[in-house]
Amino acid sequence: MAIRKQQKAQTRAKIKQVAKQAFLKQGIDATSTRYLSQQANIAVGTLFVHFPDKLALVKDIFFDEMEIALRTASQHQQHVSSPVDYLQQMAHVLFIFYDDYSEFTQQVLLDSLAHGGFHTTQMAAVYDGVIMRFQQAGVDENAAHVFAENMIANYWFVLLSGLPKGVLGRQALDHLKRLNLPFEMSYKNALKSR
Which residues of the chain are under the pLDDT cut of 70? Predict the structure, then answer.
């Protein structure tokens, strides 16, 4: 039984490896499941045993790569107190990743928005981090929530305006920082009044 599990894991890994290369080179929509099966030396049905559809395969690759990117970034990031700096730091890592995997991001993000998936959950965690930083500076809970909601709305605005173009680099981060300048000032004022 252990051999069968190992074979399944190897087949799954081979499919993902072949698919990642094909999707990045040819594009997701231009890559057929038949092509992937041929490249992985498996039957089309075997591909569907491991992944019920192409989107499931795209998502699996996307989340693996995102986990690697976030883990790598967390090893090099320093703790920041400012909620704006915190959001900038998170956006920097995510925007680079989204640019590198723009077609993956478009498909996964649309699915996530339609079904309340990963990005909604991810942004809820960032939202909580923003609130915590405002409250640590002495901003009352209601104001911290209002500030965080607006900052997250600014994040979504920058993300959704840059994503279709595949341009979420330095310019997008600067735009996000400018949009959140009033909240940075509120944070600094709260620190001064402590």
Answer: 1, 164-167
DSSP code of residue 173: H
Query: Can you give the pTM of this predicted structure?
Result: 0.75
Percent of the chain with pLDDT over 70: 97
**Judgement on whether residues 73 and 152 belong to the same structural domain of the protein:** yes
Specify whether 86 is located in the same domain as 22. no
Residue 116 region by backbone torsions, left for phi larger than 0, else alpha for psi between -120 and 50, else beta = left
List the one residue out of 37, 58, 157, 64 whose CA is nearest residue 112. Answer: 58
- Using CA atoms, how far apart are residues 129 and 87, in angstroms rounded to an integer? 8
- Tokens 């699915």 belong to which residue? 111
Residue 126: Cβ-neighbour burial (10 angstroms; 0-12, 13-18, 19+) = buried
Per-residue pLDDT tens over the stretch 154-168: 988 888 787 766 667
CATH code where residue 60 lies: 1.10.357
Cα–Cα dist 165/40, whole Å: 31
DSSP-derived secondary structure letter, 194 = -
